Amino acid sequence: MKFYHGECTPESCEVDVIDAGNPNGGGYALDPRQDLRNHSPTGYEWGYSGSGPAQLALALLADALGDDEKAQRHYQDFKFKVVARLPHDRWELSQEDICHSVAELARGRCR
Predict the structure, then answer these.
(1) Domains of the chain: which residue ranges?
(2) Which of 2, 25, 37, 92 is the most buried (most CB within 10 A)?
């Protein structure tokens, strides 16, 4: 299982992935996946529904789901329903949280 940690400082907003399934037990910076869509060349943001949050939503879904097409289908809804509501200073989501949210979005029941 993966865990996603976001933190904003006055300089930037960073998102790290802790992969419990990784034999090295290490973490890494979340790939923004600008190869899929480039909403925000200046980086991630959250707590509202702009271009930085769109890039974060796409990156989170692509990483957590492991399915680029599914990520592209659902990231805008995920942005509005989840990323826009994250607290600005720091947050944590599990891969399970993300997958559950996408399943709810696909059924039209995510609030």
Answers:
(1) 2-107
(2) 2
